[in-house]
Specification:
By secondary structure, the protein is an alpha/beta fold. The protein has four domains: 180 residues, Nucleotidyltransferase, domain 5; 69 residues, Rossmann fold (3-Layer(aba) Sandwich); 93 residues, Rossmann fold; 166 residues, Sandwich (Lipoxygenase-1), CATH 2.60.60.30. It is 22% helix and 23% strand. Helix 5 packs parallel to helix 7. The chain is globular.
Length: 622
């Protein structure tokens, strides 16, 4: 399929008609609430793409500006700049009533939200559009989806990367081209609701417990550092003070009870609270508050956890010579030993374009299946994957073939498919496919990501950069899906509450695991594998459906693995649950020797998120 790379006119589709506020920020770091905005640019457009306002400024953050080698903003340049408090009214006026647009929009939105919170206000943004997420849906024939790459594709001149004013000008051209391409495909925009919030708080670092869990409190025994402690019911000492004293003593304070809890503190063990009931079910001992306070006076030393694994660049440093971040990424990765089990695996270093063989004639192609029953569609997608294709869940520019099952001819996307002259087949084609020329015949790159079947694994060749597992599902889905992550130890339990990352707590306190939401049907988990503590053996990534719907209502979920923001996918896998599942393990990142692997899991369960989390040692309210 060939889409126009740029649009001479602003799209006029009614659902694309919005007032826009295009935003770019340069920051002192990557953590909203901890790091600060150093430079801000805003460009406002009306529904026809006409410029209605523009504002840009440097900002004095009152702190170290961070990576000057990237943004070039030295303390001297920022010294005379205004503070955010001085410009907040003008910024609020430009954002109010408009859709915020940015490339990786959650990043820019969260930084602005925290800056407004610092001046006791809130960002007046009710919806945002991420051009990175929009182009993931469009699927343009580009090497990656980085700002500079998309600028070249959509015919926009980029003059100075990492300059907020130039980046927001480039963003306006990318938005124009992206909307034009999305209009050709008939895609609904991935607008994300983000009502103004006043509860953003400055980043407060939380230090996870530094000690291993020694097990349960023995009758008449002493507390030991690392014990998991849960408190339930009223206490005479303020709960906050009790928790603070426990943390200071080296105990691991939990908000839920599991089989690995060491002791429950309660003044009323017969209260029937959820924690008390779970403690009784698991045989967890309990003590009253006065006994606990006495035990706190003499906590035994614990056994320290393994420290975070050093970066490979640092491990290979010669003498005292420092290795830069740029050179670290160029160092050869030390791959783990070959798998002992007969689990399907793909090579760590893949060819630039998978060869087409008799057994995999659809290598490099993207197949969209329309119609059929859920079981028929699952079978067709599995057959396409077995033939080497990746199975798409939405229509995009990267789709090369469409398989129409009974009823699929009535799909509303068929008109677009016909207009775009895509190759359309019936189910018999998958039994003996004849292969028409792909996009590469007209100079466009085929989809070069490896395709993993359910249960297959991939050795990650480089863990010095954070890896992102993104999940996407059908845009027409009528129910909400939540992606979550569990960082678990060798016993398949979370060491602490903070190791459960979900919509209510989307970031691990140390920043090693992060959940992002880029659109209504796309969420992602990013894991900084090199910084994970050694006791974390795997990161389990799951999806849960809110309400009574099941994955038969959602359809297939596609996961992609990328290394870096906007990078091309390294791996794709399309996962189909059966009819009744409400939760599904999508993938897991796990240690293998000195390295890490990704496994495409695709295991569904009939129970909800609360039951899934409980299995990993977390209690949540559904």
């Amino acid at each position: 399929m060939v889409l126009v790379s740029s649009s001479p006119k602003w799209p006029v589709l009614p659902e694309y008609f919005h007032d826009w506020a295009l935003v770019d920020v340069e920051t002192s770091g990557l953590r909203p609430g901890r790091d600060r905005v150093l430079s801000l640019a805003i460009l406002t457009l009306d529904g026809q793409g006409n410029r209605t306002g523009e504002f840009s400024t440097l900002l004095n953050p009152g702190c170290d500006p961070g990576p000057v080698h990237i943004h070039g903003l030295t303390p001297a340049r920022l010294a005379g700049a205004p503070t955010f408090e001085e410009i907040a009214p003008r910024v609020g006026a430009l954002l109010g009533g408009r859709v915020l647009v940015a490339h990786n929009a959650q990043f820019d939105h969260d930084f602005l939200a925290h800056e407004f919170a610092r001046v006791r206000s809130w960002a007046p943004v009710s919806r945002r559009l991420c051009t990175l997420a929009l182009n993931r849906l469009v699927g343009p024939p580009t090497a990656d989806l980085k700002l500079g790459t998309l600028a070249a594709h959509y015919g926009v001149r980029q003059e100075k990367a990492h300059d907020a004013q130039d980046d927001v000008r480039v963003l306006s051209g990318i938005l124009r081209g992206s909307l034009g391409a999305a209009g050709q495909l008939g895609l609904p925009l991935p607008l994300l609701e983000c009502p103004p919030r006043q509860d953003y708080k400055p980043y407060v670092p939380k230090t996870p417990c530094a000690y291993r869990n020694p097990g349960r409190l023995e009758p008449g025994g002493a507390l030991t550092q690392g014990m998991k402690v849960a408190i339930t019911g009223d206490t005479r000492v303020a709960r906050e003070e009790l928790v603070a004293r426990s943390v200071a003593a080296g105990l691991n304070m939990m908000t839920s009870v599991s089989g690995r809890t060491s002791v429950v503190v309660t003044n009323d063990p017969g209260s029937g609270s959820a924690k008390s009931r779970r403690a009784a079910e698991e045989g967890v001992p309990s003590v009253d508050e006065s006994t606990y306070l006495r035990l706190l006076e003499s906590v035994r030393p614990g056994r320290a956890k393994g420290t975070v694994r050093q970066r490979r660049a640092a491990e290979e440093t010669v003498g005292a010579t420092a290795v830069s971040a740029a050179s670290a990424t160029a160092l050869p990765a030390r791959l783990p030993a070959p798998p002992a089990a007969a689990t399907p695996s793909v090579p760590a270093q893949r060819p630039a374009a998978p060869p087409v063989t008799a057994s995999r004639p659809l290598s490099g192609r993207r197949v969209l299946v329309l119609g059929g029953t859920h079981a028929e569609a699952v079978e067709a997608r599995a057959r396409a994957v077995a033939l080497g294709a990746s199975a798409a869940v939405n229509l995009s520019a990267s789709v090369s073939d469409v398989v129409v099952l009974p009823g699929g001819e009535a799909d509303r996307r068929m008109a677009r498919i016909t207009a775009l002259a895509l190759h359309v087949h019936d189910a018999d084609w998958l039994r003996s496919p004849t292969v028409a020329p792909t996009r590469s015949a007209v100079g466009e790159p085929p989809d070069s990501a490896d395709v993993l079947a359910r249960g297959a694994v991939l050795d990650l060749p480089d863990t010095a950069t954070a890896w992102t597992v993104a999940a996407a599902w059908r845009q027409q889905a009528t129910c909400d899906v939540d992606v979550v992550a569990f960082a678990v130890d060798a016993g398949e339990q979370v060491p602490g509450d903070e190791d459960f990352v979900f919509y209510g707590a989307p970031e691990h306190p140390d920043g090693t695991v992060l959940l992002t939401t880029d659109g209504p049907t796309e969420q992602a988990v990013t894991a900084d594998l090199e910084r994970l503590p050694l006791e974390i053996h795997r990161v389990v990534i799951a999806a849960a459906i809110d309400g009574a719907a099941t994955f038969s209502d959602v359809g297939a979920v596609e996961i992609t693995l990328t290394c870096g923001v906007g990078a091309a996918p390294t791996v794709r896998a399309t996962l189909d649950a059966a009819t009744t599942e409400r939760t599904m393990i999508l993938a897991e990142l796990y240690r293998r020797g000195d390295g890490w692997r990704l496994r495409a899991v695709g295991q569904g369960y009939d129970h909800g998120l609360a039951d899934l989390a409980r299995g990993y040692g977390v209690d949540v309210d559904e």
